[in-house]
Specification:
Low-confidence stretches: 10-14, 42-50
Oligomer: single chain
Helix content: 40-55%
Strand content: under 5%
Largest sheet: none
Mean pLDDT: 77
Number of strands: 0
Length: 127
């Protein structure tokens, strides 16, 4: 990831964000795995940042845990997208059978921009 991040810093064309692959990985690890992010940054409620048109994370039928999961996904979707599109992840994906990763995960990960859109409504295929 570090090598790939350095190489991408030199690129001028394409879909680039200010975040490198390494930064995306570190963010996901700190927030979702290690729980080392600051307490205020870990708040999945997104107070003050949510758009009232966005129904994800606000369903009374889904329950607190599912709503918080949806809010965490929306808070970190860009990091997930950057990491998924990295060359490192493409190399890992080729070896997915070693750890029994389900092929359907690829469809989900390829659709992160659509799934994180404020206008997202689940399709029959999504369900």
């Amino acid at each position: 990831l570090d090598r790939e991040s350095r190489e991408n810093e030199d690129l001028e064309d394409g879909d680039h964000n200010s975040m490198t692959c390494r930064q995306a990985y570190d963010e996901l690890m700190a927030y979702l795995i290690d729980n080392t992010a600051t307490a205020s940054a870990q708040d999945p409620t997104g107070e003050g940042t949510e758009d009232r048109r966005d129904w994800v994370g606000q369903s009374p039928r889904a329950g607190v845990a599912a709503n918080n999961d949806a809010k965490q996904f929306l808070a970190h979707h860009e990091s997930i997208r950057i990491l998924w599109q990295s060359n490192t992840m493409k190399q890992v994906w080729v070896k997915r059978s070693i750890v029994n990763v389900i092929d359907a995960h690829k469809e989900y990960l390829n659709d992160i921009p659509r799934l994180s859109s404020q206008d997202y409504k689940p399709t029959t295929q999504d369900v």
